[in-house]
Amino acid sequence: MSLPGLPPPKPIPLKERAAMVFVERAQIDVRDGACVAVDVDGTRTHIPIGGIACLMLEPGARISHAAVALAGRAGTLVTWVGEGGVRLYSAGQPGGARSDNLLWQARLALDDGARLRVVRAMYARRFGEDPPAKRSIDQLRGIEGQRVRHAYDLLANRHGVTWTRRKYDVTDWGSGDVANRCLSSATACLHGLSEAAVLAAGYAPAIGFLHTGKPRSFVYDIADIWKLDTVVPEAFRVAAKAQKGTLQMTPERAVRLACRDAFRKSGLLGKIIPGIHELLEAGELPRPDPAPEALGPAFEEETSGDAGHRG
Q1: 0.85 cut: is pTM over it?
Q2: Which fold has domain 14-91?
């Protein structure tokens, strides 16, 4: 709701938002123009819907039409997830896609040479070195998998975590060991944040380059670039505390808080959208000009107004 005489505030740019909020066993509604979570005993907790990138609803959470509409106007992604956030059932789309970005993304993905160049740029961005020459996408995918497994082994040894391999059952959350549950919770946080950025910038989550055939292939592409530098170390650190019995909360909650702090410390929200543009430019195909009537992305990078009227 805007004050008389003032234009409606614009959505806060993604890079200036907090990462995400998880809600479980509460009713999300709009009261007095603000988004709130109402517990079973009637206690209200304010949710700064315009100041977060992603609202993740766990089992037991309900959300009203008014709250979803408010999130849409604020450009905030709403996702419905399973216990611990490990399974994503559905997601809203903040602001809609842009035809010029979609056409550019699709053109790059359909051109074999351009797609390989994008994948090589992703590899270089992820590991800080150029990938081996004359390798196919399938070969690069295999090399990446080996490097990630090796990174897991190193982090497990560093933190003294009992570790065999990455294994979990999305239909039975409690069956996984603590390290795998921590990793699943951590990557779910990063996937939610990455999907918010992909959608906000006007791209399609399903059109991936290294990952293909999944509804969120491009989300996985983007998330993997920063995964080893942000959430994976936090997952193993929390798993080590859980195995020692020194946690004062569930491992899943501890991982979420650790990821929140890691996102803030690394400034990840300010890096993802520019990073997407840089990676796609590596495909060396021109971006189509936007149509004159095209809508802009959900999050604009410039701001306007004073501290009391953010734009």
Answers
A1: no
A2: Ribosomal Protein L15; Chain: K; domain 2 (3.100.10)
